[in-house]
Every structure is written in C-alpha cells, then in structure tokens.
Design a protein that fits this description.
The chain is mainly alpha-helical. The chain has five helices and three strands; from the N terminus they run βααββααα. About 15% of the residues have low confidence. This is MerR family transcriptional regulator.
C-alpha cells in the first residue's frame, strides 16, 4: 500500500478525537478501539468522558497507522514492534538521547559542587565524618 501524506500537526497542546481522526486519517471508532489494544495510547479524559490527545499521542497514532495500514502488520505485530522499540517514534528517542547527553555534564558539575558544599558543612560541624566521604 502507498504511503499517505497526512496533514501537518498544529502546535496545540490538546486535540479532540475528531481533530486526531482528520490528522491521522483514521475514524474515531478506530481510535477508541486502538486505545484498548495499545497500552501506550492513553488520551486524557475530561468532562463527559471526552478524549483529549497530546502531540506525542498523535505521533503514536500515526506510527500505529503506518504499521497497520502501510506495512501490513497485524495488531499483535504492531504492538510487539512498538514494545520492542520502546518508543513509537525513532526521532523522539534520538531527541531524548540528545537531551540526556546535554544534561549529563551539567548534572555531574552540580553533584561535584554539592559534594564540596557538604564537605565544607561537615568541616564546620566537626570534621570527623568528612574523611568517610
């Protein structure tokens, strides 16, 4: 099956089921069914049990749609594929890895500064515990 070109996702925090249906080319009843089949898909439910999807869930739905409709996976196959990759979208995983790398040097600097401050406090309090650290 040919890859369908889907509309761009607007910069909004929440999307209704109707909006997600249009953005992903899937009918609302299918989205409700996929909620039961894919544990990663958990839209926020508000007043009147209305579903509100966030950006990452729209991406997940597009990925599920691609696996089922374009790559020919079964529901079980798509579920296993999503579970084995840990994330619905490889770009999200890459972004998260980049953020971890960027955060690591900052975190180690903060830990070292904190360690020095603790040692100074211990010295002020008596100094005997500082040799244990």
């Amino acid at each position: 099956m040919e890859k369908v070109v889907l509309p761009p996702i607007p910069a909004k925090r929440y999307f209704t089921i109707g909006e997600v249906s249009e953005l992903c080319g899937v009918k609302p009843h299918v989205l409700r069914y996929w909620e039961q089949e894919f544990t990663q898909l958990r839209p926020v439910k508000r007043r009147g049990n209305r579903r509100y999807y966030q950006h990452h869930e729209v991406l997940l739905i597009r990925r599920i749609r691609e696996l089922l409709y374009e790559q020919g996976f079964t529901i079980n196959g798509a579920r296993n594929r999503l579970d084995s990759h840990g994330r619905a979208n490889g770009a999200e995983a890459d972004e998260a890895d980049e953020m971890k790398v960027e955060a690591s040097p900052q975190a180690s600097v903060d830990v070292e500064a904190l360690r020095k401050e603790i040692l100074q406090v211990i010295d002020l309090l008596g100094g005997s515990a500082a040799k244990q650290i």
